[in-house]
Every structure is written in C-alpha cells, then in structure tokens.
Specification:
Residues 598-708, 761-993 form the Disease resistance R13L4/SHOC-2-like LRR domain. Belongs to the disease resistance NB-LRR family. Residues 62-145 form the Disease resistance N-terminal domain. Residues 230-392 form the NB-ARC domain. The strands form 5 sheets. The protein has a 17-stranded parallel sheet, with helices on both faces. Strands 2-3-4-1-5 form a 5-stranded parallel sheet, sandwiched between helices. A 3-stranded antiparallel sheet has the order 6-8-7. Helix 15 (334-344) links the parallel strand 3 (324-331) and strand 4 (354-359). It is α/β, with parallel strands linked by helices and 1053 residues long. Among the domains are: 41-138 and 147-176; 212-376, 3-Layer(aba) Sandwich (Rossmann fold); 382-469, no CATH class; 760-844, no CATH class; 861-1008, Alpha-Beta Horseshoe (Leucine-rich repeat, LRR (right-handed beta-alpha superhelix)), CATH 3.80.10. Mean pLDDT is 77; it is low at 1-20, 35-45, 180-208 and 1009-1053. Helix 3 (40-70) packs parallel to helix 6 and helix 9 packs across helix 23.
C-alpha cells in the first residue's frame, strides 16, 4: 500500500492546496488510499459517482457547441463538418451510457477513469469549437477565408479531437464498462433503507435534542390528532440534510399521549432515493396490519408471482375503515410521493388519518400538500448549538468561561456548523477525544478531514447524497458556488449571469435563458442545497449563502473534478492538473504555476496575484469567459484592461467596485472585438462616456456603467487645491509620487476634463446604441451630455426591462425626446425617471420619481403591475390625490415617501386603500405632523419605518392594521404620545414590535397635540408643466444608490 501511495502521489503531482501544505496534502492522499483499501465498496462508488455526474453535465455543453458549429457555413468550407457531426454523435452516445451509469450503484475505478477521460474530452471539444465559433463570427467571410493559418490550425485540432473521441468511446466497449440494461433494475434495488441516514439519525437521542422541544410541539399541533374526521392530511417537514428532520418526525411519531394512542395503526417507512416498491408495500402491510396479515396475503398469492397491484389492493382495502398514522421519511421525488399516495392509501378514507413526510425539497413539499401544512425546520440557534457542542465534547459552560482560547474555538466551530445538528454532533464527537489545545488544529483541517476521517463520514455523505441526486444540469451550477468565499452573500443576478456566460444554462422553447437560470437558482433553494440570504418584499430570494459544511464538501468535489481551484494565503504550488475556474481568496500575492490556456473564469476576492501577468487581462487566458473583479482588494487600473480585446471568448466582465478602488477612466476601443459579451458591469469607475465600439456588441444583454460624481483633487469648488494639484501634475510621473495616488489622480483628471467637470453619475452613450437589440438593462445614461439622436435610439431597445437615466441640466427638447423613447419601451419593468408622458410602459413594476410634480400624475393609477414606488422632492400638496390615485393600485407592496415628496401636515390612509401594501417608508417629511390609519385600510401592511420626521400629533389607528409586525423609529423619527403608541402596539393581537434604535426619551415628543385641519380636495391638472422654464428641466432621476435593495423586480416576467 505504501508503494501504491507513493505511485499515486508521484503521478498526480501532489502539491499544496488551498487548505494544506505539500506535506499535509501527501498525508491526506495516504489516508484516502488507506480508506479506499479498507472500504472499497463504499468509497469507490461514491468517488466514481461524482466523476460520472460531472462528465454527464459537461457533455451537454459540448454536444450543444458541436451542433452549433456543424451548422455554420464555415465548417463546410473548412472541410470539418463531417468530423464535427461525428464528434457530436459519439458524444451523445457517451452521454446515454453515462446517464445509465448514474442510475446504477455498480460503479468502479475503471468507470471513474473512463468518465474522467470523457469529461476532459468534452472540455477540449468545447474549447476548440468555441474558438472555431469566435473565428466564424469575428470578421467578414472574405477575411475569414484569407486567414489560412488559423483555419488550418483549427481544422487540425478538430481532426485530432475526432480521433481522441473515437479512442475514448472505444474504451467503453473494450472494457464493457456500461451495458445498455444497467438501469433496468432500478425499481428493484435492495436499497430500501439507507444505512447512512439511520446512522446520522441515531446520533441524536432525546437527551441531545437541544433546541427541538418547540419544534416538536409545533409539529404535533400541526398534525392536529384530535380532529378525527375528514380526509387524510399530509404534513411535510422540510429542511437541508443533517438538520434533524428524521429525528423531529420520530419524536412526534413516538409521542404516545399525542399520537400513538389516537390511531388504530401506525407505520414508519424510510423511502430514500431508490426503493423496491414491492418490499415497501410488504413492510407497510406488516407495520400497519401486523405480520400475520402479511403472511395471509402472501399465502393467498402462493404459486403466483407477487405483483405490486396485488399488495396494493390488499393494503388499501384493509385501511379503508382504519385511522392510520404513517411517516414517509426522506422522500426525494414528487413521482415517488404520488405513487405511494395512489397505491398504498385509500382515496376515500375519512377517518382523520395523518401522513408526515420528511424531505429536503421545498418544491416537492408544496406539491404534496397545502402551504399551511409545510413545516420548515429551522437551524439551531447559536446558544443551542453551543450547548449541544459542549455536551457532545464532554465540556461545560464553566470550562468554556474559564478558558478564553476554548471559548474562541467554540464560537468558531459553532459558526462553522451553521446550526446544523449533525455537524455539531459529529465534530463534537471528534473533539471529545482530543485536548482543548488540539481543537484549533482540528478546526483548520475540517475541510480535508471530511474526505478521510471516519468520524465525519456521516456528515460528508449526507451532503454527497444530496449532490448525487441533483440532475446533471444543476451539478455544474452547484459546484460553481465553491468559487465564492466562506459565508459570502451571493447575489442571484450575479450568479445567474455567470452561469449563462459559462454555458451552464441553455434557453428552452418559449422561456428566456434568464428565466431558465432563475429556475435553476430556485431549484437549488428548494432542494436545500443553498440557503436564502435576502428576500425581497414579494418573497423572491435575491441572494443566497452556502452552508460552511456544504461548501467544504463542495470544494472537495470541485478539486477532485479539476473544476475550481482556490488560491489562498501562503500557498505556492505547481499544478499539473488543468483547472477550469480559478478564484483568488488570499491577502498575499501567489504564484500557482498553472497552465492558464484552459482557464474559463477568473475571480478575485484578494490581492492582485503575481500571475498570469502584471495585467489582469493577460493574453495567456485566451479561453477566458468570465472575468470578475467586483470584490478584488486591489486597485484596478487602466493598464489592467487595455488588453481586454485579446480575450475574445469573454461573455461576462465585472469591474464594478463598491469599495472605490477602480481607477478605470476609459474603455479601450478593442472592447468591440468581444462579440460574445453578454454582461458588462463597470459601475463606480471614472468612465464618463462609452466608445462607439460598444455598439458592435450585438450579444450584450446587460450594460451597467456609473461613474464617481465627486472630486478629491480637481474640485472647482476648491480652486486653491485644484490649482496646486494642476501645477504639480509633472511630478505625477516621477518616483516621488505614490503609484496608487498617481493612477487615481490621472483617472480623476481624465474624468474632470472629458465631462467638463460634470457632477452627474451618468455616462454619455454613443450614437448607434439602438443597434444593441438584445439589451435588457441599461444604466446610467447622462441625458445632458448624450446627443438627441442617441436618446431617440433608446426607443429602439425593444427588449429593455430596466433603464436608469439622469436628466439634470438637460434641455427640454432632450427630455421630450426621452419621453417619446420611453413610451416605445413596452417591456420596461423598472424605471428611475419619468417626465410628462401620456402612455407610460404598461408593465412597469418599479418606479422612482424624483423632482417637483405638485401632485401625483394620473397615469400612475394605470400601472396595474406596479410593485414598488419611490417618491422624492415631488412637493405633493394634498393627501387626497395620493389616496385617490395610489390607493387603488392592486399590486403596490412598497411605498417610500422621501424628502420633500409630501408637504401636507396630515397623511390619512383611507378605508379600502392600498389592498396589498406591505411596507411603508417615510423619511425627511418635516411638514408632516400626523399619520393616521382608518378602519379597513392597508390590510397587508406589516412594516412601518419612520425617520427624520416629527409627528407632533402622533400615529393613530395602528390597531386597524391586522398584519402589522413592526413599527421602526429611526434617526430623527420622533413621535408625540409615544406611551400611547406603545400601549396600542402591546394590545395588538399580532404582537408587533416597536423598534427604537436610540434611547426612548430621544423619540418621545411628550403629550404635544397639534391641531391639523383636514385637507380639502381641489381639482388640478394630471400632468403639470415642467418646473423649470427655459433650457433645462428640474425633473431629476436619482441614480441607483442601492439598487439591490430598492429595485426588487427589475427583470421579473
């Protein structure tokens, strides 16, 4: 075994990884091999299974690419069309075999090696054909024909790939790895129970059920055993693997006083991913009716082949008049749920029977039962997790309080476990045999120990079980998440755009590729593979996180698949493997010695690395598809992007920098060569205008560009400082100047000069912008500096769904042209400016109005799809128009009344107004004195947030809001009769919270009473004239200061 280990290490280039030094990596591989020798029947199928799954996933992209390449005229002219068709057909055959292999448990090392070969061939085909497609789409036909050298090279690569594909395909036949009937025995697999699940469930007994007491009582209440009539009720317990669903269901199932004594028969059935239908029915008959009943049934069938129908008929007939209680544990598919309900249980039983289902899939639960009968099991609270960890590691709170180092490690481990009981118990069990001084070392090695430590096997396999059950198209999407750092909040939009750029998402008939990507994201949420982090007011998940334990297993699988390489602190290695995705997480520069020619994505979360070159856009990364520097911890300069035109395969570019490090002041003209670019995000830069070459990017779907609007060195409002900096310009290019300050000063000077010292956050867009017919997101356009022709062309962007513009300083003519253009954008869902229009986009869901209006425009009342409305500086004089126009909007959920938007003293929410409003924000309304809610108003209102207002007549009528959850008084939010408001809140049947961020006395205006006269309604024009006369308009759209918080549904269908 030692010789085998040494051979493996020497032939796989064992070196340091993101977690381990080289010596630790060698030790890790020795442990894996020793474990493999001891348990080949468990480890080999698991290792082979993940490789087979990944190979299957990669083939989808290669087959699609081959079909597209073969359909081009150039493939015929180059004489490679038949070769590409051959490659495509062979890949489809391989895919069919791998799909069959995924469904069988008989996976061995030979299959693993063959699947790795298939995976690598698929990668090579994608790279080659991607290069071919870029060549096809880059120039005119005559120019392509003249590039003989490039044509010959690509044709030779395709023929070499054909030979390689044929060789790999023959490997399956030669070794008889997979037979066509591999999946024929799926239904009859003797895997009715999963040992790993029973093992993990047995880890938690009643004494260790910390934090579950409340959940148990809630579940029993949901079961409602005292209701003895009516049809069978199905209750679903949902949560990620290892959360304790089985344990919770068992405690409810075994509760005699609540359940067992009130049902005539009970059964516990473990379903799992694959099960034998006949064996399951036999087991249910035995548990529900008794072993004698099963013997009688089988005796009646003696001499015949036992069929599912025979057992089903017997069971349903016997249960017809019985009140039964059944737990279906670990259900994975809706088909299994429907089959069990239709075959095993009578449809006409009205005895008040109950079925509890445990599942990891929230989507499945919603199809199995009503939403009100779905119990979402929560993670352990930190205090409960700490208590459980100390109990399992045989320590006490006193031990922890007496040892600061131990206390620190306990908090770290609890955070690592993320409230997952199985993780707390398994890691606690490991720590129980170790000294406290060793805990830190164990904590640091948890990611690598997951692969080799038998104590952590249950925790690892509970994650791989979920991973292996994912459909092939989700596996690459899931592993891709390992790019992001621990506990990182991953925005849905960013993730889906990157999935699309990598080719993981493909459009289907009648569904856009963006909506397919959203479906993938939601499916991972429903399957409890990722956790919702931020949910908007409509209940849509806008960002997610990955559980630390899940991430560790994910990284292990990604590393084994040569999928993602994480470069972290103090790690220097020469990798012989070819990784497709690289992410830098460290705070120090690293040299990882990698072959960058096949890297498809580069993501920076740390300092600037030493390689592949001094520039971020290195020509060595010729196959790069995604370049993401949004969270980079270094200054991105103009030099870094000057070579971006060399990266012809780029589909996703993100230079957005919320930290303010980006010193980019101009997009190079070579940007026009990126014909496949879909997403270009350059927010928070010094760019003031877009080059005309941007109009060549016909595939562009999202263009976000905002510029810094402040000046630090060349501010004309500080003329003395500006003059000094101008006189010192020659010194910028001497060694006396700090390089970081040099790049910033140069960028700011360029921004000031090119924009004529404009303070706008928008950029000038070029004429020809109307050619970008696929564009869906465009922000932020500076209307003052953009030509009338370019503004008019905005109306040609027929697929545009989100538009942000700045009109400050623009002429009335330009504003009118913009209004005409906006009226043509029928797909627009989110708008951050609106002037006087007669026909606004009908599908608007998000609207921000900033500027003097005098009253609410009448057309706002026609926006039946409007979900969110923000008003700023509108100077609305009377509440009547607000209630009359905004009150009936059926879908309005979020209303923000900001600085100066309302200048009345009283705001009363009338009876029947705002039927769907859930959140009300009021800030900087200094004239407002009283806020009143009448009976029957805002029945869905849950949150009221008030800041920088002095309500001297108080808030009245909160008892009329049946769904109220919280009233928040922020800074400057002061209220008269605060004690009376508190008493109303305390008496509210929903027990809402009155949240104060400062001392109570700060908010209380005492018993001040101000008489506020009722406003009288006056007729006025629905469309007021622009406030400013002459050459400019005062109607200004604020730029998107915090778009992810404000614009909830910019791209919802």
């Amino acid at each position: 075994r030692l010789t085998a280990t040494d051979w493996w290490i020497s032939h796989t280039g064992a070196s340091s990884t993101g977690y381990l030094s080289k010596s630790q990596e060698i030790e890790r591989r020795k442990k894996i091999l020793n474990k493999l020798v001891k348990k080949p029947d468990i480890i080999l199928p698991e290792m082979a299974g993940t490789v087979v799954s990944m190979a299957t996933s990669m083939l989808r992209g290669a087959i699609s690419m081959a079909a597209s390449a073969a359909a081009t005229e150039m493939s015929l002219l180059m004489g490679v069309r038949k070769d590409i068709w051959f490659i495509k057909d062979e890949l489809k055959t391989m895919q069919a075999f791998l799909v069959a292999a995924e469904k069988t448990k008989n996976k061995d090392l030979l299959l693993k090696v063959w699947a790795e070969q298939v995976r690598d061939v698929a990668y090579g085909i994608e790279d080659c054909l991607d290069e071919f497609m870029v060549h096809v789409g880059s120039q005119s036909r005559s120019r392509r024909l003249l590039k003989l050298k490039a044509r010959h090279r690509i044709a030779s690569q395709i023929r070499d790939l054909k030979a390689r594909v044929e060789e790999v395909s023959n490997g399956n036949t030669r070794y008889n790895l997979i037979t066509a009937d591999s999946s024929s025995c799926i239904d009859e697999m003797n895997s009715y129970t999963e040992d790993i699940r029973s093992h993990s469930a047995s880890n938690i007994d009643e004494a260790e059920l910390v934090g579950f007491a409340k959940a148990k009582q809630e579940l029993i209440a949901m079961v409602d055993v005292n209701s003895r009539d009516g049809p069978c009720k199905v209750i679903c317990v949902v949560g990620m693997g290892g959360l304790g669903k089985t344990t919770l269901a068992r405690k409810a199932y075994e509760s005699k006083e609540d359940n067992v004594n009130k049902f005539s028969c009970c059964a516990w059935v473990t379903v799992s991913q694959s099960f034998s239908k006949i064996e399951m029915l036999k087991d249910m008959i035995s548990q529900l009716l008794g072993i004698d009943s099963l013997r009688k049934c089988l005796k009646d069938l003696e001499g015949k082949e036992v069929q599912i129908e025979n057992l089903s008929e017997y069971l349903t007939k016997e249960l017809l008049d019985k009140r039964y209680f059944v737990v279906l544990d670990d259900l994975w598919t809706i088909d299994a749920c429907k089959w069990i309900k239709n075959i095993a249980f009578p449809s006409t039983n009205n005895k008040g029977s109950r079925i509890i289902v445990t599942t990891r899939d929230a989507g499945l639960a919603e199809q199995c039962t009503n939403e009100s009968l779905v119990y979402h099991l929560k993670q352990l609270q930190p205090n409960d997790a700490t208590k459980l960890l100390l109990m399992k590691s045989r320590k006490t709170h006193q031990d922890m309080d007496n040892d600061k180092d131990m206390k620190t490690m306990v908090h770290k481990i609890v955070k690592k476990c993320g409230g997952l009981p199985l993780a707390v118990l398994t890691i606690g069990g490991m720590l129980s045999t170790k000294k406290v001084t060793e805990w830190e070392s164990i904590y640091n090695q948890i990611p690598s120990e997951l692969e080799v430590n038998p104590s952590l096997e249950a925790m690892r396999r509970i994650v791989t079980l979920s991973y292996n059950h994912l459909p092939s198209h989700l596996k690459s999407c899931f592993l891709y998440l390992s790019i992001f750092p621990e506990d990182f909040e991953i925005k849905r939009r960013r993730l889906i755009e990157r999935w699309i750029a990598e080719g993981f998402v493909r459009a289907t008939a009648g569904v856009s590729i963006e909506d397919v990507g959203k479906g993938y994201f939601n499916e991972l949420i429903n399957r409890s593979m990722i956790q919702p982090s931020r949910v908007n007011i409509e209940g849509i998940v806008r960002s997610c996180r990955v559980h630390d334990v899940v991430r560790d297993v994910m990284i292990s699988i990604s590393r084994g698949e040569n999928f993602v390489y994480l470069a972290q602190d103090n790690v220097t290695s020469v990798r012989e493997e070819t990784f497709r995705h690289v992410a830098y997480h460290g705070s120090e520069c690293q040299s990882i010695g990698m072959d960058w020619n096949h890297v498809r994505s580069l993501t920076m979360f740390g300092e600037k690395p030493l390689e592949p070159s001094s520039s971020v856009c290195s020509p060595d990364m010729r196959m790069l598809r995604a370049l993401d520097l949004e969270n980079a911890q270094f200054q991105v300069t103009q030099k870094d992007i000057n070579n971006i035109g060399l990266l012809r395969h780029l589909k996703y570019v993100n230079f957005s920098d919320p930290r303010g490090y980006s010193h980019i002041y101009k997009l190079p003209r070579s940007i026009g060569k990126l014909q496949g670019l879909r997403t270009l995000n350059i927010r928070d830069s010094y760019i003031t205008e877009l080059p005309t070459e941007i109009c060549k990017l016909k595939s562009l779907h999202s263009l976000r560009c905002t510029r810094n609007s402040s000046y630090e060195y060349f501010d004309l409002y500080s003329p003395r400082e500006c003059l000094v900096q101008t006189l010192c310009l020659p010194m910028l290019f001497t060694p006396l100047t700090d390089p970081s300050k040099r790049t910033k000063k140069v960028a700011e000077l360029h921004m000031a000069w090119s924009s004529r010292w404009s303070w706008s956050r928008g950029v000038k867009v070029p004429e020809g912008i109307g050619k970008l017919k696929e564009l869906q997101i465009l922000e932020v356009v500076d209307i003052r500096r953009t030509s009338c022709k370019a503004i008019k062309e905005l109306g040609e962007l027929v697929h545009l769904r989100k538009l942000s513009v700045v009109t400050k300083g623009a002429t009335k003519q330009k504003c009118r042209i913009l209004c005409d253009a906006v009226q043509k954008l029928t797909c627009l869902h989110s708008l951050e400016w609106l002037h006087v229009v007669s026909s606004p986009p009908p599908l608007l869901r998000s609207l921000t109005l900033d500027g003097r209006l005098g009253e609410i425009p009448g057309w706002v009342g026609d926006l039946m799809h409007l979900v969110k409305l923000h008003l700023w500086r509108s100077e609305i004089k009377e509440e009547g128009k607000i209630m009359e126009i905004l009150g009936p909007l059926p879908n309005l959920m979020h209303l923000l009344l900001g600085r100066g938007c309302y200048i009345g003293e009283k705001l009363a929410f009338k009876t029947g107004a705002f039927p769907n409003l859930k959140k009300l924000d009021i800030c900087n309304l200094w004239e407002l004195r009283e806020l009143k809610f009448e009976d029957g108003t805002s029945p869905q209102l849950a949150m009221i947030d008030i800041s920088w207002c002095e309500l001297r007549s108080g808030i009245t009528g909160v008892n009329q809001l049946p769904k109220l959850k919280e009233i928040s008084l922020g800074l400057g939010g002061r209220v008269a009769k605060l004690a009376m408001l508190q008493s109303e809140v305390d008496a509210h049947p929903k027990s809402p919270v009155l949240r104060l961020s400062e001392e109570r006395s700060y908010y209380d205006l005492g018993d001040v009473v101000v008489q506020v006269e009722e406003a009288t309604e006056e007729s006025s024009s629905l469309h007021p004239e622009p406030a400013a006369a002459g050459g400019s308009s005062e109607s200004v759209v604020t730029t998107n200061v915090s778009q992810d918080d404000l614009l909830y549904t910019y791209n919802s269908c």
